[in-house]
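Reviewers asked in the last cycle whether our approach scales beyond single polypeptides. To address this, we selected a multi-component target totalling 904 residues and predicted its structure end to end. The input consisted of the following lines:
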Amino acid sequence: MTAHAAAATTDHHYTATGLPSWKVGFWTFIASECLFFGTLISTYMVYKRSSVQGPFPHEILNIPLTSVSTFVLLMSSLAMVLALDGVTRGSRRLSILWLSVVIVFGSIFLGFQAYEFIHFVGEGLTIQRNIFGSSFFVLTGFHGAHVTGGVIWMVTLLILAIRGKLPPERALAVEIAGLYWHFVDIVWIVIFTLIYLIQ
Amino acid sequence: MTTVDHKRIGVMYFVTSLFFLFVGGLEALIIRAQLWRPEQALISAELYNQLFTMHGTTMVFMVAMPMAVAFFNYVVPLQIGARDVAFPRLNALSYWIYLCGSLFMNVGWFFGAAPNVGWTGYANLSSLRFSPGLNTDFWVVGLSILGISSILGGVNFITTIVNLRAPGMKLMRMPLFTWMTLITSFVLITAMPVIAVALVLLAFDRFFGANFFVTSAGGDPILWQHLFWIFGHPEVYVLILPSFGMISDVIPAFSRKPLFGYPVMVYAGVLIGFIGWGVWSHHMFSSGLGPIADSFFVASTMIIAIPTGVKIFNWLATMWGGVLRFNTAMLFAIGMLAVFTVGGLSGIMHASAPVDLQQHDTYFVVAHLHYVIVGGAMMGLFSGFYFWFPKVTGRMPNEGLGQLHFWLAMIGLNLTFFPMHMSGMYGMPRRTWTYAEALNVEIYNQLSTVGGVLFGISVVVWVLVMLRSARTGAPAGANPWNSPTLEWSIPSPPLHYNFPQLPRVRTREPLWHDGERESVQAASMAEVTVEPEMPSNSFWPLVVAAGITLTWGLVMTGLWWAPLLGLVPTAVGIFAWAFEDPFPASAHS
Amino acid sequence: MAEASPRYGPPPPRGKKEHEEPAHASVGFYWMIGIILAIMTGMEVAIFYIPALAGALVPLLLVLSAGKFLLVVMFFMHLRFDSKVFTALFLAGLSLAIFMVSWLIVLYYYLPLFTV
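The resulting structure, written as structure tokens, was:
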């Protein structure tokens, strides 16, 4: 009885579902973030035609440019799954390679965003200018902030990988980072469609 | 300061919320003093605005919600047979953010600039143009901070309940309090982001010149109302569902009968949480949405009364034919049923849009909301307090003082809030610092003020109960109430690690079934040679909480780069936390 | 039970039921999804610029972007092959978000058309 008790007591990996708590918790967080971005998107949609003065969306949004950045972000998601695959397989080389690609592509996306923001301000579109400016910058700004956080997260993982501290046993950490990254990507898919393509 | 133990954190939540109960109560009593006579000027109109704003904000966000969270924290892991929540440090973070945010909100008092736009902060009263002072800044920033605490807590509890149930505890075997905690957590994580965004929009308007609620730029103040109430209505279910859960455990224990219609109670709770998302514009019937929108919300609001009513009948049916014990916990539970029902009736009246047009912004609504929040949520919390007090302290609550508390509270709350139905019907507007003598509602106001004082005294009695019982209460064993659920199988108070061995559960009432009772108790009281390893303390949650508060607080400077400074300690805290090993003692490959 | 930091030795012991290992997609499969996503993005941009399709612009774009969304969620985020618990959690949030966005659009754009 005592031996049995002793064995059971030190087991702190027990779960009721067989699923890692981190993953359950993170998907719950993602559900919450759906509401966060959903509200920002609702605000944008409600105010789509409300600006009293320009610049207006059709005058200033650059579809070709943003299509490229959208493509880049999508491909970074591909790199992310490949990075996870690399870590799961224990390939230090592949993990480093693909994590770097995620970081580079994410940074390119952010670069495009920064360029777009600066360009728009130059054209006279600011948060203060009109409602389009307010809702556009707040929505895409929060998205960009999420991407930035993601890039920092990825850099941390990359450093771990380079130091050989990302073995297959820690694949869950990369998987969770991946969930975050993909989520930020799908939010962008929605934003790109609703803001840029459907005007 | 560094604890990550859910039991300690639960007590911390409770003590802090008790403190703010006195703060919010004091605010209420000053309001009631001012309303003693018509056209009285005991205090200024400006102070009055601050008082009712902070009373509402304090009671909702710093008292009712955290007090329920105190119970979630202490009780849920024990009810499901777990040693702690899924993310103990995140749990600590939620508490510290709550404390920091609450203190931040109240800092405004020291500047003579406490929030003053009502707890609902309607645009564009809350815009820079009409509220240029610091008051609304404190409100926007403080509430944003508090929201984070709730969302993180919600994630934690959902994960805990989904993933850390003891072997054999299927979802439909969980105690109802745990079920309601699960539903409440879902409502929290889905509703709080909405107000977070609304506050972001208002913050951008106020600090960075955005146009979200600036009408001349095309902004629509009604959008604020939508976003606020899309949060606000689910929020009231967040307030009441925990209490529903508590009495669902109390009533069976003191009727010596299992809960009547357990599955229906679960489904009704889920339905309430879900439909609660579709009723928000019943707070906006006078905002000119039009008959089609109004009709939809009338219908959805009336529909949500059905699962609520079902629950009430089930509680009654549980008591029917049972062996009833009328101790304090049970008295409060029954009292809650009665008073909440009254509140529900006034609520159904509000559900009709044309009727609501007369009642909106009058004291009739104040009556309704206090009947359901004080009479409903708070009475449930009192019931839960007396029920679980022995488990937390190892001592029995003082029955004599407890009954005094109950009767004072019941009489006090009814005396305070029932007359408000009358003054409301006679047209006394809410949120106004005084009223005309010609309205003839002085008598009702005086009754309310007397009632308010009585209720205040009852809260003092409550504190006396805590102090007296903790010192001289009779020692309570593991199961002084002969209750059926898992938390009653372990010692009172529990050991640091709760369960020496994880019990295996086969029914909903493990301790009421022969055979199962013995095996559960054997596991819960097993001798251990090696104590289970629990996560070590950490002070990073406190650092991150302080960092978040600093970041948000720096927004008030209006400088876009200032919050980034606050991100530095926050990031340091997060990184240190991520690389900290909570189990340094054990060898891990 | 505290699992306070990611620690991934052998899979944790479960409750009573057994469960199968989630199917693991191959690297090639992921590349294929990636290429499909790229193509769909290209199609979206093309539709935007082809005047003949202007009438069907909105539905087509919504369908295509929904498709991309689903591909990323089901395969990159692995929902298709993972436990239904995750799908349930995600859908809980997503469905409420969709409800809110749709209902606000209806309230602001379509209901005013019916003002009596």
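Residues 1-10 of chain A have pLDDT under 50 and may be disordered. We regard this as preliminary and will revisit it once experimental data from Aim 1 are available.
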